[in-house]
Amino acid sequence: MSLDNAIASSQSKGLAWRKSDTTWTLGLFGTAIGAGVLFFPIRAGFGGLIPILIMLVLAYPIAFLCHRALARLCLSGSNPSGNITETVEEHFGKTGGVVITFLYFFAILPLLWIYGVTITNTFMAFWENQLQLPALNRGFVSLFLLLLMAFVIFFGKNLMVKVMSYLVWPFIASLVLISLSLIPYWNASAINQVDLSAITLGGSDGILVTVWLGISIMVFSFNFSPIVSSFVVSKREEYEGDYGREFTEKKCSQIISRASMLMVAVVMFFAFSCLFTLSPANMAEAKAQNIPVLSYLANHFSSMAGSKSTFATTLEYAASLIALVAIFKSFFGHYLGTLEGLNGLILKFKYHGDKTKVSEGKLNSVSMLFIMGSTWLVAYVNPNILDLIEAMGAPIIASLLCLLPMYAIHKVPALKPFKGKAENIFVTAIGLLTILNIVYKLF
User: Fold this and answer.
1) Which HAMAP family match (predicted)?
2) Is 358 helix (H, G, I), strand (E, B) or coil?
């Protein structure tokens, strides 16, 4: 066998699909499917059928190209075991590492605020609509729920991580089952409301603005960026020594592509099933009520007149419970990242990175007090969740997921092979459009 054939053979073996690749595909997919998915149908269906069809076309490119760009940045470091912070420090110095730590912390903290508002509203809606019990004080409910989660986190973190990892798949299965079970309740209201003669591109209600705002919720909902760094490190350690960085990049792209396809298929089917069961007017009402779509579905089936099917009766109670589980799962997962980020910032600025100057228990307690206190305050104020996502959560995620890798492509020699490619324009545009939501919300 010639040398070229031997190299080609070894490379093809390296790119063959492995069990570990399936594990990571499902891991990326499971990371993205969380509480954010429960708000995507509301924003996507808010403008009616045509905007959601455009979002369907954009969904896979946004999920795949943006996460692939971040993975390529993680791959560009010289240390195969180095995470994204080390890689950025290598390319841009310690200042770059501090900036990334800041961005990671402030990308995750607003998500906790969002989940704090969501879990309070979901619980109160279930209490009042399904259980038919008197309304409770909002401040008390949010404080009780957050103290309950703080208690679980403080005394059973390891158990919590294990339980949350097991809850991912029942939640995804529940979304698919609900999507399928809603089919008998589909109606043509979303189609009948399409009036081609009345469609406008501009204006606050135009297709372009609706899709623009929808991009933010897609960036938020189709997001597994927190796990990309760990994923890339794992694949580099598995492949790079034997097959080189180029083939490791191809393998990572292959896994990200399949995870993105799974994610888009599940989330978009769920969104369409909700839209065809409800209507754009119902989605607007759900946004005004500031509750996830599952809670609105529960209330919708609760208010149905006449005899109800077994599914309608089950969904009336199960939808809110599934939503609560999803929010708990997402809150716990993001809390750990927020705690790590805040601890890192405190160590960098107060203790100059010296962990010996402060006990881990004291550091965790101070960070928990700030995180839970700020989350309770936001949950009590009750800002609109979709507005909070579009103005804070999604723009910071986009700066990490889209703009940082695009900036690195123009500055880092190791990323030079990816410079000048057409998809870079798309990823940059998605990042800028998402960040510009802040300007739109202000004016």
Assistant:
1) Thr_Ser_transp_TdcC
2) coil
How many domains does the chain contain in total?
A: 1
Tell me the helices (H) and strands (E) count for the chain, helix number first: 21, 0
What CATH number did the domain enclosing 318 receive?
Answer: 1.20.1740.10
- DSSP-derived secondary structure for 144-197: HHHHHHHHHHHH-HHHHHHHHHHHHHHHHHHHHHHHHHTGGG--SHHHHT--GG
The proportion of the chain whose per-residue pLDDT surpasses 70, expressed as a percent, equals: 87
Contact 437, 401 (CB under 8 A): no
Token digits of residue 48: 């009616």
Q: Encoding tokens for residue 303?
A: 């208010």
Instruction: Please enumerate in sequence order all residues whose Cβ is within 8 A of that of 193, keeping only pairs 6 or more positions apart, or say none.
Output: 48, 49, 279, 280
Residue 143 CB-density burial (10 A; 0-12 exposed, 13-18 middle, 19+ buried):
middle
* pLDDT range class, residue 157, cuts 50, 70, 90: low
- How does pLDDT run across 3-51, given as a tens digit for each residue? 445 445 545 555 688 888 998 998 888 888 877 788 889 888 877 788 8
User: Is residue 88 one of the residues assigned to a domain?
Assistant: yes
Mean pLDDT of 61-73: 96
Q: What count of residues does the chain have? A: 443
Task: Show the domain range for 261.
Answer: 18-442
- The pLDDT of residue 168 is 77
pTM: 0.85
pLDDT of residue 354: 56
Alpha carbon of 414 to those of 90, 246, 418: distances in Å? 12, 11, 9
